[in-house]
Structures are given as C-alpha cells and as structure tokens.
Amino acid sequence: MKIRIIGAGLAGCEAAWQCARRGVEVELYEMRPVKSTPAHQTDKFAELVCSHSLKSESENTAPWLLKEEMRRAGSLLIRIAQETSVPAGHALAVDREVFAAKVTEAISAEPKIKIIRQEATRIEETDGLTVVATGPLTSDALSLEIGRLSGSDHLFFYDSISPIVEADSIDMEKVYMAARYGKGTADYINCPLTKEDYDRFCDALVAAQSVEEHDWENLNYFEGCLPIEEIARRGRDTLRFGPMKPVGLRDPRSGRRPYAVVQLRQDNALGTLFNMVGFQTKLRHGEQVRIFRMIPGLERAEFARLGGLHRNTFLNSPRLLDRQLRLKVLPRLRFAGQITGVEGYVESAAIGLLAGRMAAAERFGQRLEAPPATTALGALVNHITGGASAQTFQPMNINFGLFPPLADEERYKRGHLPRKPALSARALNDLAVWLDGARQAAA
After folding, report:
1. Is 432 found in the same domain as 298?
2. Per the structure, how many domains does the chain have?
3. Domain extent at residue 288
4. Which of 36-40, 50-54, 119-123, 131-135 has the lowest mean pLDDT?
C-alpha cells in the first residue's frame, strides 16, 4: 500500500524521499500550480518563500548540529542545499531558484514517488498511512479538515510569539521568584524595574523599528494580541498596568513593590527555557535583543527564540501528537514540518525526515522510535510532543535549551567549560547508536 504525503514543501519532499529510499511507494500531493498561495511564486517543490539562509554552519552551534545529524541520516534537502550553496559567511545559504529546481528534479525522477498536482481537501478512512506536511500556509479547505479531525480549538492560524530566554543566561542576583499575591508556588522569575528603568525601556520600545508586515498576512490584531510596542505607544503607563504590572509581586528581599515587572514563566519540562510573559512583538530581531537586554537580570540574556506575530497554521502538538508524530485520535495520520510547531527551513525538513522514516517502518510492520532527546533531531521531537507546555505552545527553532543537561552539568558551569562542544559530541555519538539500531531493525 502506498503512503500518501500531502504537501511538497521542505518537509513533504524529505518525507517522500525517505520513504522511497526504503522501498515504499508514495503519492505526493501538491496543489500548486492548480491553486497557489499568496506567498509562493512558482510551482517548484521546496520553494523558499522568505530567506534563502539555512542558518549557521559554525561547528557546535545548534543549527549546525541539526544539519550535521541530517547529513549523517541521509537527508536529500541538506545534500542539495550544499550543492546549491552561495557565499554567506558562516551560514549555509542557497540559490533559491536552483535549490527548488534540483529538489523538484530529484523528487520527480524517483520512480517510487507519484506526483499528483491537485489540492487535497479531505482525509478519508480509505487513505491509509498519510503524512500532512502542508506548512504554515495550509489551504483553508484542508485546515478545516484538520480542525475537524483534531478539534478546531487545537489548530492555530497565527503566531503570537513572546521571546524565550535560556535560563542559564539570566542574572539570578537581580531577579526574584514569586507568584502574584503569593498564590500558588513561586514559579515565576520576576525582573523588577525602577521608574528610571521603565522610562528608558518604554522610550526604546516606542522608537524601535518593527518588521514590515506582508500584504498576505493581514493579521488585524485583536486586543489580547497586541504587540508590546503598540501597547507602549498608547500611553506611558499602559505597560505597567498591563503585562508589566507589579501588583501583588513584592520583592521578598526588600519587601517593596517594584515600579514595574517583567515576568518569565518556565516554558519546557527541563526548566532550561523561560517565556517572557505578554511580550509578543513585531520588532526587528536586532532591536529585540538590544531593548530586552535593558531589563534588569537580562543584560546578558541569550534568546532561544525571539518574538513575532505573523500568519501561521500549526497544531497544539504537545496535546495532539504522540512520539511517532501521529495524531493520537487517528494514528494512521502523521504530521511533519512547520504545521507541527517547529520553526525554520531545516527544522521543517528534519521533522519530514523523521516522519518519512517512521511511516516507512510502519508500512513494513515495524516501529522506528524517535532519536534520543540528547540529539538535535530527538530534542525537536521531544519538544513538540510533550517537552513544551501545551498551554503556552508556540513554534520553536532548534536551540541548545531544548537539550537535557549533561551528566556532569555542574562541572561545566563551575569550571566555565565549553558546554556546546560537549552537547554536540554527545548528540553525534547518540545519533550514531540510533542510526545503527535503525539499520539493524530494517535489515
């Protein structure tokens, strides 16, 4: 029986290739050019609609590690990206037209992949194993179908993203733990601001440059989703009576209430990432880093993800998907790519690679477990299928904050030893074991 894959973007192409490499026939559905999207310009597969960069190729960075794992796992997309690369310093950037053309050519030439140029609007009982990889601009008809199957309250049509800070970059001497009015446990990190701190912060917010909105996004923000800089423009005190209100948050060290407070809430089960509560923003990334480092305690903050608001379609994956990337209520249906809540080209292709391998294994009556969470591939799967909080789930790029601590983590902190090379070495060792086990199981 063929595996049906819907969407020939980065994730869908990688999933189809991985299935075909394992001897499984695929029906790959792509609605372009019969029906296009507001963002796409061509009918080519794996078209890059925004940047042409696949991020850092500097060793021991998280983006490099993810690409290196994919290289070792036989990724089509990473191989073609290297073949079509253009000079970009320490990043892997591609000639987007040549990249898309070569991916289209490779997929079209694979005899086990049948390409069907039509919009998929229904997922029927008779469809068998299916992978949905339709990305952030999933068509309205298919979005309704996914909503019907998963529950429409678990399918989101825009991102309202607050920045996420790596916990070990927060200066804990300048902040304090507390819950408002002392209710519940003191789980929030509170960054206290004086009036002078607050005034400087507001001035910087109002003067900062925002990202230009695409015509096709048309967000029409509702009041509960206003960018923080828009709130600041409504008046000097709007932030400290809104997301930065200090009421009920006395500093236990002084017994006094700050003039304003920025709250950070734990964002993953490991406690390595903290979300800046209510700080969704349209500021340019460079502006975010500069301005948010003005907040006491965040002067040296490292951001696992920066904020944003834009149109997107993604699942509440921690609630809906199992570790096999399957819909819990309909296990023959898998999801891959940005619709699962990963952010970025490489991350999307990575989930496509795993979804394709898992679907192919299931087609032969086997089960391929996800890579361990100590790997970049496994860390992404772990995050979207339960490591992240379902209540605050938002799309995420690969970053070292998603990885479990090293066995001797304290030694690295005390001795100021380089953690990232150690995390990378552990990941590649564990990936080799996983790949070897996958080969033996398939033999």
Report:
1. no
2. 2
3. 164-306
4. 36-40
